[in-house]
User: What shape does this take?
Amino acid sequence: MMLPGLIVRSSSIHAAGCYTTRPIRKGVRVCEYDGQRMSKAVADARYEGRPVTYLFSCGGNTVIDGFGMAMFLNHSCDPNCETEQDSNHRIFISTLRDVAAGEELTYEYNLYDSDEDSQDCYCGTLNCRTTMFSALELKRRARIAKRKPAANP
Ligand SMILES: [Zn+2]
Assistant: This one.
């Protein structure tokens, strides 16, 4: 499922981004985060050592190996879209507010349980958190860091 009028072009946030050529009203589903579903372990093995992956965690131990337009939506700390899961566990990206023609579509990645050391954010919005990790993930990392023995001075 994809709304007509979406295009991919180069983005100031990261590589390529998804833009709308038409205005979209608030609360409209723009596309589905579609792709093969697999366990996180299988996905980790498949993508080990690759810098760019398009895995969407849909709760529990399942990830979606994304393809299609949804892959091109960049993260922003001040996004105009959000993801929602319907009762059939399908993931849709829908608008949080009215979006004007020409705007880039973005959503909060809220990365959690990542194997990466860091996931820096370059969205450039005023309230940029400088990371794409979720608040929960930052807490989890702080807890782990505390548990490690202090380094010798
Ligand atoms: Zn940001």
About this structure: Strands lie at 6-10, 16-20, 29-32, 35-39, 55-57, 62-66, 74-75, 81-85, 91-95, 104-107. The longest strand covers residues 6-10. Residues 12 and 36 are 29 Å apart (CA to CA).
